[in-house]
Amino acid sequence: MNSLRDEIRFLFSGQGMPYEKVCLMVAAVVCIVLGTMLSSNFSHDARVVVIDLDNSAYSHKLTSRIDASEYMKVTAVLNTPVDPSTLFYRDQAVAVIYFPRGLEKDRYTGAENHVGVFYDNTNTAQTSDIKIALNELIGLDNAAEQGDTGSTNDSLSGTIGLADRNLFNPSGSNYNVEVQGFLFFFGSMFFTFATIGMVPRLRLSHQLDRILLEGTPWDILVRLVPYGACLAVSFVFGMAILRLLGDMTFSGSLLTFLFVQVFYVLTVGTMSVLFGWTAANPGIASSRMILFIPGGFIFGGPTGPISFYPDWVVAASHLFPLTWEFHFVRDIIARGAGFADISKEFGAFLLYMAVVLILFCAKFFSARRALLKRQAQDELHRQKMQQLSLEESAAAGQAE
């Protein structure tokens, strides 16, 4: 009982983590903030691209009905043949709807025809609502054609049907979504654990002051190279296991993927060092990983469809480096995009990386100025003490 009383006394003494307050704050943040950000459980205004080769009044009417649905939002209408898979790059669309030539003619002459639908199956949950909505829309249209405007007769079969195809992950394999997502999440997390305590370690070993005075920011960043190489190798090794033992698909170029990883590793490593800079020791620094790694895993796509989140959540999620990583993973690995196809996304990521590097350099030179100021104060104090010592020695000599 003495041990229990002693620990309770320490808990409320303020000498350690104020856990009695932290536990309540964590519960409030998780329930309020994440509850708001994850409040939607269906695809609201999911982006849809229409390839309208018929370009008729009937196809225009169908396009308007699709856009009026709460589940879908038509972001582009193309009137020329396009490879549907290219329209999914950079998460530009969740589905591509294809209206063939002669659709209006077949609709009113009673000939059979089909509306083609291509679904992005990189996350199997994001298309479920859209599939239901499109089937209902076509069913209502066929019912209206046969005089049952309210679509109360489910046995009616019209002349227009849906021909759908799941792209990129047709079998709905978890190896291409959840397991792959955990690979990049845990890999990035342990990479952060290995690097976030770098500056506190250098400070404790008295190497940081020398680097600040004689070196440049690169002298710290170059220390990330062996850790980054290990991370890249672990990604390839993990994907090889998923490919050999599972059914993971790798549709793109491995060289393109590795090229992007160079910049991703540098960005995550720089953020890791930056977040751990002010920690007293590496152990305290490790706890700060939670500030910038898990958010990308939660909102980057592996745990839930991006189309479920409000636009402001999707925009805010790009503050986390893993969100960018999952964009590249979906495009390069799942969709087979080349470097030119992801150039816009990669350019935006370079701007993000530039901001991180600027903040790191600002922190480095700020620490250098603080060190020089502290050294100047120490030197001034030393001179004053030396002067005082000389004065005391002179006074003692005169007294003798």
Automatic annotation (TrEMBL):
Native source organism of the sequence: Mitsuokella multacida
Transmembrane regions listed in the UniProt entry: 21-39, 179-199, 220-242, 254-277, 289-309, 346-365
Keyword list, A-Z: Cell membrane, Membrane, Transmembrane, Transmembrane helix
Any one GO MF annotation of this record: ABC-type transporter activity
Protein name per Swiss-Prot or TrEMBL: ABC transporter permease
Domain ABC-2 type transporter transmembrane: 24-360
Gene Ontology CC entries for this record: plasma membrane
UniProt keyword DNA-binding present: no
InterPro entries xrefs: ABC-2_transporter_component, ABC2_TM
